[in-house]
Amino acid sequence: MQRMVLDADAAYLAVKARDARFDGRLFVGVTSTGVYCRPVCRVRTPRRENCRFFDTRAQAEAAAFRPCLKCRPEIAPGLSQMDSSRELADTAARMIEHAVHGGQALALPALAARLGVTDRHLRRIFQAVHGVSPHDYLTTQRLLLAKQLLTDTGQPVTQVALASGFASVRRFNAAFVERYRLNPSGLRREGAPAKAAAAPLRLAWRPPYDVDGVLRFFAQRQVAGVEHVEGLVLRRTLGWPQPGGGGRALGWLEARFVPDRHEVHLQVAPSLAPSLGAVLQAVRQGLDLDADPERIDPVLDRVPGATRPGTRLPGALDGFEQAVRIILGQQVTVKAARTLTHRLVQRFGVAVETPWPALDRVFPDAPTLAAAAPEAIGTLGIVRQRVRALQALAAAVAEGRVALHRGAPLAPTLAALRELPGIGDWTVQLIAMRVLAWPDAWPAADIGLMNALGTRDPKAVAAAAEAWRPWRAYAVMKLWQQMENVA
Length: 487
Fold this sequence. Notes:
Layout: H1 8-17, E1 27-30, E2 35-37, E3 51-54, H2 57-62, E4 66-67, H3 87-101, H4 108-115, H5 119-130, H6 134-152, H7 157-163, H8 169-180, H9 184-190, E5 201-204, H10 211-221, E6 227-230, E7 233-241, E8 248-258, E9 263-268, H11 276-286, H12 293-300, H13 319-328, H14 334-348, E10 350-351, E11 361-362, H15 366-371, H16 374-378, H17 384-398, H18 410-418, H19 425-434, H20 447-453, H21 458-465, H22 472-486
Parallel strand pairs: 2-4
Antiparallel strand pairs: 1-2, 1-3, 5-9, 6-7, 7-8, 8-9, 10-11
Helix pairs in contact: 3-5, 3-6, 3-11, 13-14, 13-17, 13-19, 18-19, 20-22
């Protein structure tokens, strides 16, 4: 049932070496303690005969192991989209994770229907690929999110239960005790006290990680009032739909890179606490913390240019915002797109208070831009065709016809985008790349790619990229960064 790339002896060597490259790809259950750990755990290395190895946290928990309170498996990087040959099961897993972190209910028949298969077929494929049932995977995701919120925040247990997708505190307590043999309040007493609002949440990545490249990418595109990069810190404002349809909460976040720990330390505004699980997931995608360089970097070595270990694919913390910015970037330079985005934010954005004077506005949401007068958008210097595309996208998102997040099914979402006016293949591919986190997206007509590859023939560009599958989107990042560094 397992998909372990390493055999057990090799896995044990990775655990002995505390090899961070296997963080999130390997978990070790220790039979003498009943606990499962990340390979980077700093406790004494267990004896080989006491170790059982698993690909996922869900497999370890299905085998009755509970998560370690020291290395905290819930903060380990997750699986990237190309980790499995069964795209159906991987899509289902991403949809489950998105629902859990968004505090949404998710029934298996509804999930199967969205994927166009029967729930029996989905259970069979999911079990074969991930080694557990969809229900067990869902329960693991909920409990690990709850464990992180209990450990890293001071949120009341009731709020943690609801934010983790449990229908009641009673069901949450029962599931927590059954799986972890510890009640939620006991976890805080045994592991660490409930932390103050100022304490950071921790998210891990697998090394290497091109921190400088990622931060430089965001800095070159930062929009005044919305985001700001300073040293190893990315700060930005954020608007997030409140659970239960209660409007949009406005706030901010600060992501501080800690390279020596292979972690991002995250501070989030108290106003976003009800949506903290969804924000954590958005940060993971936005900073591409789940990427697996062991698989990606060897392919990128074939791409022209200097080697960049740990190249990442900067994504979107707000999918709609990023899609709008891509539309505004059609056929203009990065600087011009940033100027147009700043004007749009100043005209239609919402004021918000933050700890930093440089950040004071939240990007407008889809209903706001869908309802705006086209001429009001046009006065910002945005040409008519872009206005039409922007408002068509905003209406589709506001009406629920298009979902712009990593958990959205790829093919139906791309098909829906192509039906909108003013949205061609270049725009669709960039949305797939930056918003939907599709690692094989390839905007063949991109001028930057053509310049980097020394040709203006899209067919020649596409042909060259065949050798870089299934990581062509990462090749885009490497080529873009090379051109920007030269400029």
